[in-house]
Amino acid sequence: xxxxxxxxxxxxxxxxxxxxxxxxxxxxxxxxxxxxxxxxxxxxxxxxxxxxxxxxxxxxxxxxxxxxxxxxxxxxxxxxxxxxxxxxxxxxxxxxxxxxxxxxxxxxxxxxxxxxxxxxxxxxxxxxxxxxxxxxxxxxxxxxxxxxxxxxxxxxxxxxxxxxxxxxxxxxxxxxxxxxxxxxxxxxxxxxxxxxxxxxxxxxxxxxxxxxxxxxxxxxxxxxxxxxxxxxxxxxxxxxxxxxxxxxxxxxxxxxxxxxxxxxxxxxxxxxxxxxxxxxxxxxxxxxxxxxxxxxxxxxxxxxxxxxxxxxxxxxxxxxxxxxxxxxxxxxxxxxxxxxxxxxxxxxxxxxxxxxxxxxxxxxxxxxxxxxxxxxxxxxxxxxxxxxxxxxxxxxxxxxxxxxxxxxxxxxxxxxxxxxxxxxxxxxxxxxxxxxxxxxxxxxxxxxxxxxxx
Length: 454
Ligand code: BGC
Known about the structure:
Elements: H1 9-14, E1 19-23, H2 26-29, H3 42-48, H4 65-79, E2 83-87, H5 90-93, H6 105-120, E3 124-130, H7 136-140, H8 148-164, E4 170-175, H9 177-186, H10 202-220, E5 225-232, E6 235-237, H11 242-265, H12 284-288, E7 295-299, E8 303-307, E9 315-318, E10 324-326, E11 329-334, H13 336-350, E12 357-361, H14 379-397, E13 402-408, E14 427-429, E15 436-438, H15 440-453
Parallel strand pairs: 1-2, 1-13, 2-3, 3-4, 4-5, 5-7, 6-8, 7-12, 12-13
Antiparallel strand pairs: 8-9, 10-11, 14-15
Helix pairs in contact: 4-6, 8-10, 9-10, 13-14
């Protein structure tokens, strides 16, 4: 197998039942932000504010997949990937997000073409309907704080399903609602850049409702697999002190259980201690917990917390002692064992309510050059992916149902507030020319998929 390290035969066998995929998202790869009637989203607004994006880049052209989707499909075919998780841009379909707007034909045509290119390449398309690019007009009206956004989302989903539902059977609804609520509305690190702290929490409920609404619509259009993509992190106390354990329990509640409990159990965890009230109406919890075919699970790293007495939050996030780190530095520790432990905890906590899990994102960025003349040797990425897949085999051996694995990302792309400074791709992209050059991790993943299937 190209690159190191390799897998033992038992590990390959444990991975045999999995579907292998890679993922991207519209705003991160498409470019063409002003073409063919595309409207504006909160990310167009965010990148326009000087200082919001580390390298002042603005996601255009970047990988330019709007013009290069056929190349992407060929790369996926070359990989032998079973599936491709990409996202549909809401504002290409309903440019101003409003009910009265007729769907934008050019936007629908683009995704129609992407789907056909993937199918022709033998790759199952798995679009995500919401990967953070909320129409600006809806944000002006309150965004995910406003329940009306759920209805607008339903109309957009209907338009997409009408056009693609004859060929697309697998869907992701919403991506990482925790990132949107916590980093987008509570802490201001991502669009829309609000710093509302605990007042942001109704955005959780509305995004989960959007998931349930989309799932219902997609089923009516013949969907076979519908899932949310939920990001989780094992929360570790920095020390054995009671206060750090309490801080870890609080963050686990906010970051993990706040999303998984309503989706899988139909109820929120006890939020009284946080003084939080969710805007729940009759029927909401049933809609949110509509059974999912699989549970999409994004995992990158654990989070270590220290209790603090003062400040807006009762904890600080601190480096994880003894862990190596990715290109993001100390707060992105590499601890594959925590993926295994989190999965086993989930199985214990949710039991038969837990459907098979698909790892819908896993990957890492490391410092890599903007230009490359020959394939980049990204041994650190290979080791990261290898070790997380091995951790997955341990979770499988412990009885956790795992149905698939997805590398984030197929391509180097626009890493949100970090612009082009963090590269996650199996394929290097020159952001000026769009030139794609597979890295050694691409070859490694291809060989792994082939070895699992052999
Ligand atoms: C997101 C991706 C992002 C990746 C790496 C996830 O939080 O879904 O859009 O690029 O992690 O940060």
